[in-house]
Input
Amino acid sequence: MSFSYRDEIKELNEFTRKEASGSFVQLSDGFTHYEVGNPEANETVLLVHGFSVPCFIFDATFKFLTQAGFRVARYDLFGRGFSDRPDTRYDIDLFVRQLGDLLDALRFTRPVSLVGLSTGGPITAAFTARFPERVSKLVLIDPVGAKPLPYAPFLKVVAMPFVGEAIFNLIRSDGIAVKISSFFNRELVQEFQSRYLLALKYKGFRRAILSTIRSGMLDPVLDVYKRIDKMDKPVLLFWGRNDPTVPFKHSNLLRAAMPHMEFHTIENCGHIPHHEKPDEVNPILLEFLRH
Output
């Protein structure tokens, strides 16, 4: 059964996509919205956003790394931003395939450095585990997957057939935007919410989010992280001390699973340290990528 959500009022098509900066490419599962900076540079960094917020969440990182001389790419995961919302299962296989297809379409043949935020953590980790020859370094930012999230009981309810659709139909878009604002610095919330709300207007967003939950994308994946630790690849982990979405204490489990990685705590910071504390995060990130 197809559900229609009251706040999803716009269709993604050739006309509405003109509202987006960047470019579009047809991949095996649909059109993907992406942007590339410094296309002729040799060293590539690919930024993978999280559960629902599109790739604009990497604005500061994209600009900084581009100015530092890297070829930098970012894109919207399927179901988010200006990328298509295919009627399919939004599981790890879909997102890993999208990442690989994008690298192929952009002809990025040399190994790339991957940066995964939140749910982008399991996506970049799974891609690295499956295709280690395509990844040179891995950066994780407050990643999902160490243990069940604090709101796991709610997710179980949402995952129930028809119940999730009913709940999502009751929640207004501005209510979702408020819940997703995981900043320690509340001055950043208003601008973030205004940009996030635009993405929620396109049909298929909530269907994709429900499928993502039901497909286990928020479940623990410590076994994948452990596999990467055995690969002898450089891994960097950032975690905001005050993260309400993926609590800081989860970092202990991930550090135990990946004892060889470099770890940095970002104080007075929520779930998105690269966005909230770029002056602190960027120098560490640059040093890691250059060596």
The radius of gyration is 18 Å. The chain has twelve helices and eight strands.
